[in-house]
Amino acid sequence: MPSTPPTLGDFTVLPISFPPLPSFPEPTTHYLYLRRNTPKIPTPTDSRSLFLTNCPVDSTDIHLRSLFVSLVGPGRFESATFEDERKDTAHKLSPLDAAVPVNAVHLLRAHGSTKKRKREEEEDAERSKEDEAARLPSTWTRPLRRSGSTAVVLLADEKSVEQALKACAKASKTKKYPEWGAGVADKVPALGSVWVKQHNRLCYPDPATLQQAVDAFSAVFARREKEAAEISKRLRNEPDEDGFVTVTRGGRNAPASRSEAEEARKKMIERAEKKRQEMEGLYRFQLREKQKEEQEELLMRFEDDRKKLEAMRMKRGKFVPEA
Questions:
Q1: Bridge partners of 77?
Q2: I need a surface site. Which of 107, 189, 194, 319 has the fewest CB within 10 A?
């Protein structure tokens, strides 16, 4: 059997030993790839973090902690962030934002941040508590990762990163592979049939928990609707950055949605753009016609000059000088 290369491009290869399982009673080897974390947007912790790819599907931060403890010893591992968790953080949509009318969400985000910074921080903390109260418990006791997923591991310092990479190269060379999940069986929820049964049970929360979440959601929904109505009322007499005032309908006291004003503005811009393109087409047509006339005029002048030259040659041939 060919030996495993210690590196693959910029990555250090770390073979991991998987013990036999009831579903697959044979030991196997999984390959984890590590390198220094170099994201497109640098962060202050890049120097002491590692980028991992081809993570096992059952990976958790507890599994990675156990793995790095076996490589560099205890006290070096700080945290792990998986690919799906990073995406959820970047594009996270609160259940309240998903259900509150779009117009209210836009108004609150665009015009609801005029308070002082301290007040904003207090409201952000309060809103986080409200969102947590309105969110139902997760229906899964433990996530499963996408095959070949990635993670970023944060270590104590840059020296720990160097030691981890050296330990990976040494393990690959000596063929003493760390065992995946060693000592974590009692620290993470079990998978298999127990995991599926717990999921089925969590899909049906008890009535008290469900009622509490619904009440919290309704309270926040009503408060955000009230805030959006107040902002919309204030914007009736305030022009935006382009000098437009919010369109109203149904009387002076009933402001129309800001999305309608934005849609009308987009239509006006589209009409102006279409008219400009039509005028450009007309100008191009006139330019082509003018160029065509100039070419025809040049051809006519060339033909006249050619006839004159031919007549001069014929006249010169008939000339006989006197003796």
A1: 155
A2: 319
